[in-house]
Amino acid sequence: MKNLVLGIAVLCFTLTSKVDDSHHVHGRGQARIKITGDKVAIKLKLPVHNIIGFERQPKSKAQRQELVKAEAMLLQVDNVVKLAPISECELASKKLTVKRFKKKKNHEHADFMLSYKFRCLRPSELNEIQFVVFDRFVKLQNIDVLLSYGAKGGTKSAKTEELTRQRDTLQIVKS
Ligand SMILES: [Zn+2]
């Protein structure tokens, strides 16, 4: 049952993708944020290269330690995103996986796939989300964000926006 639920979750993830999943560009991350009632789901894809400087499977003990350290940092949500404190959003769940694949010339690449789920006491006050991940990992240059609002039977509205090191905060304007 657990696998089935996971399968469905992964399928939804793919189907609702509007930020292109196939692109893997060093320096550029992708985020999908969905706000539904008092729930906020954030999915983030970051090239591993921008976090630890290499993407192949770790070969030495030092590299393995670097990967473990990076994963621990990413699982601390305060190192990645900050939701407007006034909205009183609490982290409800988090998940991190590494997706490995090969591109041209058999070069190994990898993405960190992060998922955070929040529950907010005052969701109407959620007016911004800061991507502090830019401060923590200096090789990260841009994040393409897709922000959408959930509604019964699908997505109500969506917008895409590019965040950069200089402009790391997503403004949320509700219509
Ligand atoms: Zn790569």
State the domain count.
1
Fraction of helical residues: 10-25%
Run of helices and strands: HEEHHEEEEHEEE
Query: Given the structure, what is the number of helices?
Result: 4
Strand order of the largest sheet: 4-5-2-1-7-8
> What small molecules accompany the polymer chains?
zinc ion
Please tally the β strands and state the result.
9
Strand content: 35-45%
Termini separation comes to 39 Å
Morphology call: globular
Weakly predicted, low-confidence segments: 1-21
Short overview:
The protein is an alpha+beta fold and 175 residues long. Helix content is 21%, strand content 42%.
Q: Would you mind describing this structure in some detail?
A:
The chain is of the alpha+beta class and 175 residues long. It has one domain. Helices cover 21% and strands 42% of the residues. The chain has four helices and nine strands. The chain has helices spanning 2-15, 49-52, 61-75, 133-136; strands spanning 28-36, 39-47, 82-83, 89-102, 108-120, 128-130, 142-151, 154-164, 169-171. A six-stranded mixed beta sheet has the order 4-5-2-1-7-8. A three-stranded antiparallel beta sheet has the order 3-6-9, with no helix packed on it. Strand 7 (142-151) and strand 8 form a beta hairpin. The longest helix has 15 residues, at 61-75. 24% of the residues are buried. It binds zinc ion. Zinc ion binds at residues 24, 26, 47, 49, 55, 109.
